[in-house]
Design goal:
With 611 residues, the protein is an alpha+beta fold. The chain folds into three domains: 45-83 and 118-252, Clc chloride channel; 266-461, Clc chloride channel (Orthogonal Bundle), CATH 1.10.3080; 479-610, Roll (CBS-domain), CATH 3.10.580.10. Helices cover 63% and strands 8% of the residues. The chain is built from 28 helices and nine strands. Strands 1-9-8-7-5-4-2 form a seven-stranded mixed sheet. Strands 3-6 form a two-stranded antiparallel ribbon. The longest helix has 33 residues, at 48-80. The chain is elongated, with a radius of gyration of 29 Å.
């Protein structure tokens, strides 16, 4: 299929070898080819055709991602069907002590050996990997790393590692969407949006929270809100959730009996609880980043063994931290944990998750952060009930609010936290107190210097960064195709005088003259060539005499290549990084043959941004 699409695309534009340089028929073919027209429309996402096509692709991505998440859950359920599974899910601590120690250690050993055999770049995964690929690779996620994450997460989750499934679900969703965009060779600006679709679809299908998946993708991963992004991402999340609801028998669900605010006088105590949870989020973030530096130069096997050993020791005292699913969360919501037990679970889960995340174990930190917040919130609810029993709401409410506050502070994403908790619990009455507690926790984190999500901080620890200024956001949304000038003629370095006269008669805006290596060239205004043809020196030549395009007086712009799929952000970076003054938009057809589609100047980039 990929070769067929390339074949359709191979007739587009002008070849270096000598096809007509400025032909209306070529431009018409470029616009009427159905595959090319689809790509051209997707290059202008702000236009109705581009947005409609992107929405259709968003639905397709959601369906595909839903299928991948189904396979992921099936693999986990199959491995859980082993003999230790019934005790493994119990909240009453019935899992034998030797299994609490052995299971995480065995899993860490398997993961360590597996990852030690891989190249370092093949070990990357999760939300941090998605953000990195969006920032530095235009949303291209290698398929191999998605497979590694799939296998690693199944092993890690089923052996009690302190990670969640959402990171891998988002990675697989994003990789699926990225693969679709690569297959269709879509412009990078639309490919970025499809990666957001896959991320939202993965979160939505894994948790059953379509709106939470959408807000997470835009607030945490893409870090921007646009109508162009919202529409396809919403459709992708809905499609993925529909697939899992049709084919999955059991869906994760919180069981909340009572979660209403009993008295308005509780608000000061809830604000204080938010401060406490915010401090826990700061400790978790700082500990994770510190351990990341500690593990930086250690072999991956040793890293994971240490993380497994910490999880084993914590599970020996608190087996609830190694349970999959919502069992422990529902236990906290039901008030099954005493004050000191709840505090112990929160501390043990925080410690174990910090080691797991820093050691690069496959998985996520969202689900663990929910358990930390639920346990800590439940403990604060119990304390509040002792202080003012007549005015205190249920432990379930405090556990829910703790979940949202911890998630919001760790991700620095208040809307995501509120929406996820609201969707999981189905309790609209929690919105009012949840807003207070989430904001209190986030304010504490920001006062402590935590202004970015834990994913962005871990990305920066790798020496990378994610530009999110308004200019970069705007340029990333526009393809070079929608800003380039197609009114051009393509010539080799030397052409006959008769050919030059024909070009002047056709009167294109630019003449693109490339050297034989195809890696550099220059642009010449047609008016400069016309002026030279009228000169006495040129008139004295024979019609077939060769004109060297870089010899006569002209206002030449040194030009370099940019790929057809690139965004204006890539084009701008290329101009800043090289000595080029302009770019010619090209695509390799086969071997060393390349097709030229248009030219792009710095002024054109500036005008596209101002529009």
């Amino acid at each position: 299929m990929r070769m067929a699409l390339r074949g359709l695309f191979s007739h587009v534009g002008r070849r270096v070898s000598g096809a007509p340089a400025h032909s209306p028929e070529v431009v018409t073919a470029w616009l009427t080819n159905p595959i090319t027209r689809l790509r051209y429309r997707l290059s202008g996402l702000e236009t109705p055709p581009g947005l409609t096509l992107l929405c259709a692709l968003g639905v397709l991505c959601g369906l595909a991602c839903g299928g991948v998440i189904l396979l992921f859950h099936l693999a986990i359920d199959t491995l859980q069907a082993l003999d230790f599974a019934p005790a493994y899910h119990a909240n009453d601590g019935s899992l034998p002590a030797d299994m609490r120690i052995a299971l995480p250690l065995i899993g860490a050993l398997l993961l360590g050996v597996f990852y030690q055999m891989l190249a370092p770049r093949s070990r990357d995964g999760g939300i941090v990997h998605i953000i990195e690929r969006l920032a530095y690779h235009q949303g291209y996620l290698p398929f191999k790393q998605a497979v590694v994450q799939f296998v690693g997460a199944v092993i890690g989750l089923c052996t009690g590692q302190s990670v969640g499934r959402e990171g891998v679900a988002a990675h697989m969703g994003a990789a699926t969407s990225s693969g679709l965009s690569r297959l269709l060779e879509l412009p990078n600006n639309s490919a970025r949006t499809l990666v957001g679709c896959g991320t939202a679809a993965g979160i939505a299908a894994s948790f059953g929270t379509p709106l939470g998946g959408v807000i997470f993708a835009m607030e945490v991963v893409m870090m921007e809100y646009t109508i162009v992004g919202f529409a396809p991402i919403i459709l992708a999340a809905i499609s993925a959730t529909a697939v899992t609801h049709v084919w999955m028998a059991d869906h994760p669900q919180l069981f909340v009996i009572s979660a209403g605010l009993k008295s308005i006088t509780e608000l000061p105590w809830m604000a204080f609880c938010g401060l406490v949870v915010g401090i826990a989020a700061v400790v978790f973030t700082r500990m994770t980043t510190t351990l990341t530096h500690y593990f930086a130069n250690q072999p991956v096997l040793l890293r994971m063994l240490q993380a497994g050993a910490v999880t084993s020791l914590c599970a020996l005292a608190f087996p609830q931290i190694i349970q999959i699913g919502f069992d422990s969360l529902n236990g906290a919501l039901a008030g099954e944990f005493l004050l000191w037990t709840a505090l112990g679970i929160a501390a043990a889960k925080l410690l174990a998750t910090s080691f797991a995340a820093a050691s690069l174990m496959p998985g996520g930190v969202i689900m663990p952060s929910l358990l930390i917040g639920a346990s800590l919130g439940g403990a604060l609810g119990i304390a509040g009930a002792h202080l003012a029993p007549e005015q205190s709401s249920s432990v379930a409410l405090y556990a829910l609010l703790g979940m949202g506050a911890m998630m919001g502070a760790v991700l620095q994403a208040p809307l995501t936290a509120l929406i996820v908790i609201l969707e999981l619990s189905g309790r609209t009455e929690i919105v009012f107190p949840a807003m207070l507690m989430v904001v209190s926790a986030i304010l504490v984190a920001r006062e402590a210097g935590i202004t970015d999500s834990i994913f962005t901080l871990l990305l920066r620890d790798r020496g990378l960064d994610y530009r999110n200024d308004p200019v970069s956001q705007s340029l990333r949304r526009v393809s070079v195709v929608s800003a380039m000038n197609r009114d051009m003629a393509l010539t080799p370095l030397q052409i006959p005088r008769s050919r030059a006269e024909q070009i002047v008669t056709d009167n294109p805006r630019w003449i693109v003259s490339r050297r034989r290596d195809g890696r550099s060239g220059f642009l010449i205004p047609t008016a400069d060539l016309a002026r030279y043809l009228e000169s006495d020196d040129c008139q004295a030549r024979e019609p077939e005499a060769l004109i060297t395009m870089n010899r006569f007086p002209a206002n030449r712009l040194q030009a370099g290549p940019i790929h057809l799929r690139a965004t204006l952000q890539e084009a701008y970076d290329t101009l800043e990084r090289t000595e080029a003054e302009a770019l010619y938009v090209q695509r390799r057809v086969r071997g060393d043959q390349r097709t030229i589609y248009g030219v792009l100047t710095r002024e054109a980039i500036e005008q596209a941004y101002l529009r």
